[in-house]
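Note to self: user wants both folds in one dump. Writing first protein now.
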Amino acid sequence: MPNFIQVMAFDYGESRIGVATGNTELKIPHPLETVTGRNKFDKLDKIAKLIEMWRPQLLVVGKPGNIEGKTELFASINKFANRLSHRFNLPVNFVNEDYTSSLASGQLNEQNVFGRRQSEKLDQLAACAILETYFNNHVAK
């Protein structure tokens, strides 16, 4: 029986949700998908397929470290996390997502990925950065 936990991370946005996965043994995040849909139910259905495929035991959601001027975003992220927890009966942890999108954009710029090609991958890489933060701060070395 493996002694590691499969973790799935989310970079939540109203129009797009970046998804990444990894496990606590290797601690290497892998980008999976940028989830889009007509509404929150479409997005949750797509996330359900990813959860079924990857079978995480823990979900991690990025949340800004500073609430100032972001109360609507905070409320929206909390609702998203609650939906994940209730629908999939999995624990949800929050980690600080500050600068994860900037980091992801910088990584893509270094690879000469710009414009539409960048927007397709940006949220997935931000989810990877969120997951890496989780691994660095919550998983024993």
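First done. Writing the second protein, which came from a different request thread.
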Amino acid sequence: MNILITNAYCYLNKGDSGIIRAMVQEFRKEYPQARITVISLFPELDQDKYGDCRVVGGLLSPYKGKSRLAKVLRNSFRWSALWAANLLKLPVHPTLREFREADIVVSCGGGYFKARNLAQFLGDFMYHYVQFMTAVQYRKPFVIYAQTVGEFGENALVQSKIRRIIKKSALCLPREPISSAFLKRFVPDADNCFETSDIAFLLEKKEIGPGRLQKLLTSNSMKIGITMRSWHFPGEANRDELLAGYKETMRQTILHLAGIPGAQVFLMPQCIGPGEDNDLIISREIHSRLEGLPNVHLIGENLTPEELKGVYSCMDLFLGTRMHSNIFSLSEGVPCVAVSYDPKTDGIMKAVGLEEYVLPIKGIKEQALISLVDKALADLDGMRRTLSRTLPGLKAKSRLNNTLLYDVIASGGATPAKARITAVAGEWQDA
């Protein structure tokens, strides 16, 4: 059995790497002897980071220049070249061998399945599209696995390409209700779409070793975890102003939380690269502007996704901008307040029954965020009761990703019959 996991980003993003590690973790339970291969955008950083599997490079390497036009033209040319090579079955890239030998192709879960316009399709989404396209051209069964789906704009070419990929897939598995509702409108005639949940809900946590952080985590104080990110507000003219407003809102909120008697506040970067996509940068900046408060701790350790989940599980409350920091926390029953930069955050919070604890990142104000955090602190027990009610079903839906995937494998690539999907739906509802 050869399982090919495509569309991986980078291990340094612990949300994305948590997804891959959870997938490998679960696949190994069902297929202990399988050959599992991961296609990564940064294979040199990802070797030996995803567990018992191989890591190879993507069909398109990352563009390192600064010109958006050059990126679009370069990706368009390589898309055309790959399409022709696949048509003629020419081995122009070593990773094509992985497609040729795969029994099943599984796109890793995530939030990349979107393209607001043609430029974004040719520039950013092309890294992912060529992998879907290659699976289609090699006639390999493939599954769009635990995805947030949406934002395709009005471009007819983009919409037609995306619809074709969805319809050609053996399964398209949206991971939250907003994506599921979108798919019903976008491809109403597709019978291969089924709502599941993010596979990271199933990632197994791990305790960290002895040290300063462990001592802080085992104290009896109230513990509040926070993730921040340098969001670039795509499509907005006043990006610098919006980012400055977000930073000041987070700073003021941290000062407010640090003023709670006995509280310990943890700034915990979820993503530490590659390049400037590094939460340590903004965390260090905000931490340096907190007047040296002794109960605000910047966590700079390079923890595994499982260790991060173990740390988050010790929190009494989590305030997360990074979506998977919220998922890691929520899956351990920790109440969360979410700052949303993408509909996927709203969808996940809706799925866990905490949609009232979300604020959009655009134009966020300190008064609103502090008020929402105080509301959460006043109702931690109520939020925990909500999670105790919703999490069993969500984790059951996470397992459905694999229940349906294994059906596809067992059938040789066929989409499960409607009757089977209906039966599976009944199973998770019973759970």
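Dump finished. Worth passing along: The radius of gyration is 21 Å.
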